[in-house]
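Structure tokens please, single chain.
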Amino acid sequence: NLLLVKGDVYQYINKCSRQFDIVFADAPYADPRLSEIPALVFQAGLLKSGAWLVVEHSHHNDFSQDPNFKELRKYGSVHFSFFQAE
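Here you go.
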């Protein structure tokens, strides 16, 4: 099943009570809170065990020190950081 949510990611994280196999976050690159998304998703328990969080971002963001960070993929100026739940 697929659930597409278009809205404020921070409000959704705070009210969501579901768990997912994959979460894709495509926040605006200029969002000053974009770097908070991985920690918020993991703190809220939104991912099932072994599930993935993918965050789309620019080269200005570096998530490599996050404890759940697994991989960075670059496609031109678009970067995707992959995080995995334990």
